[in-house]
Amino acid sequence: MVDLNSGWNLSFAGCGFLGIYHIGVASCLQEKAPYLIEGATKLYGASAGALTASVLASQASLAQCCEDVIEVAKEARKRNLGPLHPNFNLVKVLKSGLNRDLPSDAHVLASGRLCVSLTRVSDGQNVLVSEFDSKEELVQALICSSFIPIYCGLIPPSFRGVRYVDGGISNNLPQSELKNTITISPFSGESDICPRDDSTSFHELRFTNTSIQMNLGNMYRLSRALFPPETKVMADMCQSGYKDALRFLEENNLLMLDRPTSGPAMLESPPTTCCCKPTETTQEWVLRRLRLLRKQHWWLDEQIDLPTPIKKVFCEACQDKSGLYAKVSEMLPVRVASYMLMPYTLPVQSAYSVAQRFVEWIPEVPADMRWLCGVAGDMYQQAWKGAPANSIGIRYTPIAELANYGFFVDNANVINITHWKSKILISIHVLSMGLLHLQLPC
Question: Motif location (GXGXXG) (predicted)?
Fold first, then answer.
């Protein structure tokens, strides 16, 4: 039972494209228990969790946030290599979306309440940032918290002159000393709000403060964190987040029946504006709903609890009419031909992308070059002093030596990951898992 008498916090775990799960959770809290958001002392977040926490702290629109996530996922999926294609610039897309959707006074609303988890590049330590002097600083902190090395780029972004990368590398589920912190994660485990998988596995993986049960469901979720799924799957994840949050509220007697208005972010609209035509008869409506349940729009059934604005976003995303070029490119012969021509087309596209990014990089060249020179100097000093061979190379070790690389197995079969080498190995493994699940159109 959660005791809210002494205050409480909300903490959103980093999860990449699984952040659509956080939107489902946040929409449920706004609709069923808005006091949990309005009265929370702190809103913590790392990576994608920080993006959702910033939307709640700045009182932005969750429906618009959901629409942006779907658009980014579509943009990542429409190329052969998905988000790894050189023409896909995740940092640029995130920055433009945040500048567009966050209100002008977002930094005022978020300061002192929103805590963004960052990983400092110089020493790998975790930093929680909660004060922002301008909207640009808030956006830059969110970009730093979402920057995955190599996946998003080679040179990490800076915040107030210091280089930071994804906050999930050092603390993926930040918490404070306050006892009541409601943790939210799209991975099944010991978080307060998380999926519940039917698994007999008692093994648990603790990755930078995040509890992840070792089962097939979480393996699939990990593979989709960096490689976005289809719109239908994302709608299912959003609905899962809503249901898990509703179950948490019911189990802890936190459900507010006579709730006040949830504010401008989730304004109620007539239910007929989602997908139903106002003039259709009851029989036509029932027949159409049955067709939706049998086909790809099953998640638009009235039994689904998502708020109407969120339903409308998924409805419009599914009904998006593609042009002639998109339809032709989805044909199997065209897809096979595009993969066969990739050795010839990819270098041209890469050269164009590099030239475009270089032009955008010119204003930041002096600061980045100073940082690169500093890194090169540090590496030279370490090499001149003679670092041990084991500190540079990574070798296979027996289970008894796993502690040297940050893996600690306790009596409860819980694997704790603390060393930065282990975190990099896990990240590389997740990337390889995602590549195996790639089923992308041209």
Answer: 14-19
